[in-house]
Design brief:
Distance between the termini: 68 Å
Radius of gyration: 25 Å
Number of helices: 20
Keywords: Cell membrane, Membrane, Transmembrane, Transmembrane helix, Transport
Organism: Amycolatopsis oliviviridis
Shape: globular
Protein name: Uracil permease
Membrane topology: Multi-pass membrane protein
Number of strands: 8
Subcellular location: Cell membrane
Strand content: under 5%
């Protein structure tokens, strides 16, 4: 029966066009919402906290992000002409721009953030027709570096949350606060180990719920103001004032948009492969236009840059439910949640130490995703290691020393105060210089970094399993295709002076 239904769906379109009925669609759609809920509420909590707004206003930001995330998800999955990939792809507030927007909000406030998001998203919308030609300048060595720095740049936020967030509060950094964060972290780890897949996948969200209950029992949670305000309301356009437009902030967010476009392209290709449907240039273009259009509209409803949620791509693979209408149902659920500001106030009342404990894993997962991407990069015989090392290093500077650019002009600080912008700029430039611009014979005088990453294990040398095409023997020693000597080491990692035919000369 299932096979016949899928065949019929394929006849009408692709596997993603299968209709499961309203009941099943909303059941599976709610599962998508729960999977990404922890990720979608974190950005407004971070940005609102950095802006110094009240808990009620943070609640408004949370509700707004849920609302615009619902609209963006419906547009992406259901689609209209020229907008929407019509694939089971969930949209929500992007983590990629959080650190950059936190830097912008320090000078321009929320109106400055909203202005930068609108302008950069319009720019992203304009370049979507030619973005397929730009993707080659954002290979895994660049995107992996940037995603890693995104995760690392959010760690100070998690640490401050764990301490209580308000550095003027008498209990800031107290043992009770950090202990509550540690307990929440432990709950995340325990739930992640549970053999029930549904519980394991929702470990972040469930840990926040359990941690909040424990905090309430300990007298460290205050929900007295949750009832202050309407239960149901539509987001009011520009609740925080008209957007302002600063060139440096726009440039900084434009870099983030390029990274977001790259991530969404990867997610479109990934979900197409999982679903088993062809994703061509036109479909990618429609998907990216939906991404940027929803991002440009988001600030009108007090939201931020939108992007595809990779964890939901994984959920499609795990469940095998490929219908895009399931994700559309999830978008409707998000839309309804966004019209319940009381829910936003509940989220805003969650104790910061609880968020800090969960945030360590949540933000660490972002960094781990970047490291996973970097693990797929080829480091042999090139300078990719230098690209990663220099870009991560520059990206970590403003994270380690926030006042590093204090004496520079304001526009320099706005662009480079974000570790993400710093890392992305340098990674793109170095990738162009080292991997695309080759005026001379590459490798004629190689950097130590280019050869240091390849070493042959002497204990496995007789099997010749480590030799590559182009390797040759010169004067009894191994050299690669460019004539560079290939180091040989023993099983303990010690260098071996080796001459073929005579064995090891010395250790």
């Amino acid at each position: 029966m299932v096979k016949r239904t899928q065949t019929a769906a394929a006849a009408r379109g692709g596997p993603e066009d299968e209709r499961l009925g309203i009941g099943k669609s909303f059941t599976y759609g709610i599962q998508h919402v729960l999977t990404m809920y922890g990720g979608i509420i974190a950005p407004p909590l971070i940005i609102g906290g950095a802006a110094g707004v009240s808990p009620a206003e943070i609640g408004l930001l949370v509700a707004s992000c849920l609302f615009i995330g619902g609209l963006a998800t419906i547009l992406q999955s259901y689609g209209v002409p020229f907008f929407g990939s019509r694939l089971p792809l969930v949209q929500g507030t992007s983590f990629a721009g959080v650190a950059t927007m936190t830097a912008i909000v320090a000078d321009g406030g929320l109106p400055g953030v909203f202005g930068a998001v609108i302008a950069s998203s319009v720019l992203g919308l304009l370049i979507t027709p030619v973005f397929s030609r730009l993707v080659k300048y954002f290979p895994p060595v660049v995107t992996g570096t940037v995603i890693t720095v995104i995760g690392l740049s959010l760690m100070p936020v998690a640490a401050k949350w764990a301490m209580g967030n308000n550095d003027k509060a008498p209990d800031f950094g107290s043992v009770s606060n950090i202990g509550l964060a540690a307990l929440t972290l432990a709950i995340v780890l325990v739930l992640s180990k549970v053999a029930v897949p549904a519980i394991s996948r929702l470990s972040i969200l469930l840990s926040i719920v359990v941690g909040t209950v424990l905090a309430a029992l300990l007298g460290k949670a205050d929900f007295s103001k949750v009832a202050d305000g309407p239960i149901f309301a539509l987001p009011t356009p520009f609740s925080f004032g008209a957007p302002t437009f600063d060139i440096a902030a726009i440039v900084s967010m434009s870099i983030v948009v390029l990274v977001t476009l790259t991530e969404t392209t990867a997610d479109l290709l990934a979900v197409g492969e999982i679903v088993g449907t062809r994703v061509g240039r036109r479909r990618i273009g429609d998907g990216l236009r939906a991404d940027m259009a929803s991002s440009a509209i988001a600030p009108v409803f007090n939201g931020f840059t939108q992007s595809a949620f990779a964890q939901n791509v994984g959920l499609v693979a795990i469940t095998g439910v490929r219908s895009r209408f399931v994700v559309t149902a999830g978008g409707v659920v998000l839309l309804v949640l966004g019209m319940l500001p009381i829910l936003g106030r509940v989220v805003a009342a969650i104790p910061y130490p609880v968020l800090g404990g969960a945030g360590l894993v949540l933000f660490g997962t972002v960094a781990a995703s970047g490291i996973k991407t970097l693990s797929k990069v080829d480091y042999d015989g090139n300078l990719n290691l230098v690209i990663v090392a220099a870009s991560v290093g520059l990206g970590m500077v403003p994270i380690a020393i926030p006042d590093f650019y204090h004496h520079f002009p304001g526009w320099v600080g706005t662009i480079f105060h974000s570790g993400i912008s710093s890392a992305a700029l340098l990674a793109v430039v170095l990738n162009l210089v080292f991997n695309h611009l080759k005026p001379g014979k590459a490798g004629s005088d190689p950097s130590v970094f280019a050869t240091a990453t390849r070493v042959i294990d002497y204990s496995d040398l007789k099997a010749l399993s480590q030799l590559k095409n182009g390797d040759k023997i010169v004067d009894g020693k191994i050299v690669d295709a460019e004539g560079r000597p290939v180091p040989v080491q023993d099983a303990d990692g010690r260098p071996v002076q080796y001459r073929l035919g005579s064995g090891p000369e010395a250790h």
